[in-house]
Amino acid sequence: MKHLTIFLWSCWCFVAPATVVAQEPSSSDAIRSALQQYWSAVQRKDHVSTLDFIDPRLFALVPKERMLEALERASADTTVCVTLGDARVDRISKPITEGTVQYASVDYNYAMRMVLSSEPDTDEARKTEFLKGMLEEQYGKGHVQVEGPDNAFRIEAERHLIAVLDPTIGQWRFLERKKGMEPLLQQLVPAKVLKRLG
Questions:
Q1: Does residue 40 carry a pLDDT above 70?
Q2: pTM for the full model?
């Protein structure tokens, strides 16, 4: 019995360190965790924390203070009430290393509910159709529904990010990848990396 105990103990000593190494978070897990923290800040409308998850190199092109003012202005707008659902990650690519910086593509989606207030004499049906068309241009046909007596817009949004891990920062940060952002991304992410990320 003593020999069996020693044998099991020695096996555990060899297996335990391997188990600890195997449990280190992968880059995919680390990106997913950072995205959930970022999205939690977005849902809470904690704009300072939200901007902390943006790749800080972006602020050399678009000042952080200007972005914060825009977010605060949008939050203060009482004519629009927006509720955001949880973010669901669809895909995280394998990271690409360029120099000392790693990049990965992240696709995620979330549900959003938007209610707009209007003047009492507004033609609700016309306003709803007009706004639905505008939202469909941004989010895609089939992704926007009108529901309830308040004519709330339910939107299924699909988004794309570039996750960036700069060793001088030490944590994954994000750049949104959408129409209109490409000129900025081309200044921040090497062209060959953008191409490989798709």
A1: yes
A2: 0.80
